[in-house]
Amino acid sequence: MNLKEVKGVTFVDGGVCASKGFRANGIQCGLAHKPITSTDENSAVANNALPVKKKNDLALIVADRECTAAAVYTTNKVKGAPILVTKEHIKNGTAKAVIVNSVNANTCNADGVEKAEKMCSLVADEIGIDMNDVIVASTGVIGQVLPIEPIADGMKELAEGLTYDGNSRAVEAIMTTDTQVKEVAVQFELGGKNCTMGGMLKGSGMVHPNMATTLTFITTDVDISAELLQRALSDVVKVTLNRVSVDGDTSTNDMVCVLANGTAENVPVTKENEEFEKFVNALYAVMMNLARKMARDGEGATKLIECVCSGADTEKTAEIVAKSVITSSLFKAAMFGEDANWGRILCAVGYADADFDINKVDVSIGSEKGTVDVCRNGAGVEFSEEKAKEILGEEEIIINISLGNGKGKAVAWGCDLTYDYVKINGDYRS
Q1: Rounded mean pLDDT of 385-394?
Q2: DSSP-derived pairing of the beta strands 362-367 and 134-138
Q3: Does residue 349 register a pLDDT over 80?
Q4: Which residues are CB-contacts of 43 (< 8 A; sequence separation ≥ 6)?
Q5: Is residue 2 part of a domain?
Q6: For residue 124, is pLDDT > 70?
Q7: Residue where one domain finishes, among candidates 246, 266, 296
Q8: CATH number, position 359
Q9: H-helix or E-strand spanning residue 362
Q10: What secondary structure does DSSP assign to 365-417, as a single string?
């Protein structure tokens, strides 16, 4: 899928290593229980020859200098132990490293906090930093005890393999049911200085807009205060990752963190001025495109669905309506079947918890093959079923909804609902 352009930034390669002063690595330490089998050209094994190998399961990101740090976390009442530990570690607004494992979520375990702290101390001892400067995250199966021995045994190899181009090894290690690598990096200018920001994300199932819906790690070489970094992240999450839904389930381990090391040597961003807005714009470009990648790689998905709701009295109303559509199972199933059953769209609009006049609602469906109007003023209009089928045959589908009542606008992203979603989740632990 194509990256969606944002004015003021240029896309570059490198993921979390695109920014100056960040090294990364990923290894197979012995936690992974499933081999990589995808042959998708964007998958983690796209450039690997057969035989298929087991995926990396342990990743490390390390900054050359201390960073300002910010994070947002799941709103699920059940929270993974790594979240509890990370909250404590970055409450002073600083960090220097991130350790993350896949396969096991380290959630609902009596020794979970102890294991999460141990992961941090292993990193600290190996690279010579304070363990309180380590962010820790885990993803995978809930309720199974995390074996710390493979992580301890692999720490030396993990640390010694850190490189300034190790992003691909790291992003592979955080994948679970993901079939596609999710990395984005951009360059932009602050006060005449060339700055960079890059991120990696895992997320394919248990994805629903209720904070962050994912594990996401972002690095930047911008010099910015911890307070403004947190403000930027909290605001951008609301209009990116919080507007993605795959299956209506919110994970227990969701976390998004940003590290800023200041090596770009820009004038420090300490006020909400034009430079801050440029930083927010770059963060939006990274997180919005990561959100789109996550929606496209929803478990079993074949299509990315973008729902644009406009003409609302407020942005919040537009957001509620757009989310209502992309979370509708009936609508998602229709998109899989390439069926222009617009009544399912209007049904989802109708039960959205917001105030608007249904008799003013217009709906159209589009893709690279064109656009057709299917509903005007709350009623159906004649359209070519053949043309609609052609439009819905594309990988990226756009649903445009106008409420005809104001200037409020919002975008949400989702995917189709396929047979494979049930297959994947029917034997997730196998």
Answers
A1: 95
A2: unpaired
A3: yes
A4: 36, 179, 180, 181
A5: no
A6: yes
A7: 296
A8: 3.10.20.340
A9: strand 362-367
A10: EEETTEEEEEEETTEE----HHHHHHHHTSSEEEEEEE-SS-SEEEEEEEE--
Q: Do residue 130 and residue 274 come from a single domain?
A: yes
How far does Cα 158 stand from its chain's mean position? 24
Residue 44 has pLDDT above 50, yes or no: no
Average pLDDT over residues 170-191: 91
∠ CA 291-239-286, rounded to 5°: 45
Assess whether 254 and 279 both reside in one domain.
Answer: yes
CATH of the domain at 288: 3.60.70.12
Q: What percent of the chain has pLDDT over 70?
A: 87
243-to-134, 238, 410, 412 alpha-carbon distances in Å: 29, 7, 9, 5
Question: In sequence order, which residues have a C-beta less than 8 Å from that of residue 137 and are 6 or more positions away?
Answer: 82, 83, 86, 98, 99, 100, 101, 215, 217, 253, 255, 257
Q: Please tell me whether residues 327 and 252 are part of one structural domain.
A: no
Lowest-confidence range among 22-31, 109-118, 134-143, 147-156?
A: 134-143
Query: Could you tell me which of 18, 415, 370, 376 has the C-alpha nearest to residue 188?
Result: 18
As given in the structure block, the two tokens for residue 71 are 């994070």
**Of residues 419 and 154, more confidently modeled:** 154
Q: From the CB of residue 398, how many other CB atoms can be counted at a distance below 10 Å?
A: 18
Asked whether residue 5 is assigned to any structural domain, the reply reads no
Q: Coil, helix or strand for 186?
A: strand
Q: State the burial class of residue 388 (Cβ atoms within 10 Å of its Cβ: 0-12, 13-18, 19+).
A: buried
Do 284 and 321 lie in a common domain?
A: no
Q: In this structure, are 338 and 316 located in the same domain? A: yes
Q: Are 377 and 239 within one domain?
A: no
Domain that holds residue 29: 10-296
Rounded to whole angstroms, the Cα distance separating 144 from 124 reads 25
Residue-wise DSSP of 410-423: EEEEEE---HHHHH
Whether the pLDDT of residue 422 is over 80: the answer is no
Three-state secondary-structure class, residue 195: strand
Which residues are known catalytic residues? 213
